[in-house]
User: What shape does this take?
Amino acid sequence: MKNFTTRLLFVTLFICFSFSILSRKSQAASFTSSKQIYLLENGDYLETIITGTPAFSNNISYLSSSKSITKTKTSKYKSKNGLTLWSVSIKATFTYNGRTSKCTSYSHSTTCPSSAWKIKTVTSSKRGSSATATAVAVHSDNNVQKKFTKSVTISCNSNGIVS
Assistant: This one.
């Protein structure tokens, strides 16, 4: 009887461990969780999206109630034809536990595929459970320069909802 109980325990633990690994692998896929469009007076528009992986338990301890989530929020300045002229992104990792949340790391990035635009400056910072990237882009047309400043803030609440 003892031998049967030991085998049953090992089989049960093996099955639980296997499901744990499989669920972790399926959570690694990236997805878009929200999208917003803001129309500008000249017909161009700003498209802001949040991408990232789903939340998962902290790898340090399966007994810990703390969870971790990493998301990227990107704002793209697009022409009325839908071409991306430039973009600014903020990527942040948050921990949360149902009572509090905290931004543990962050980084910013920019792209500028249009030759008529240049990214002049980009900065980023974090505060509590949010992180912000601010880019200043300059548009040159017939020796006339126009500056456009865009800030992107990503936040996480105590339940892991990122906005």
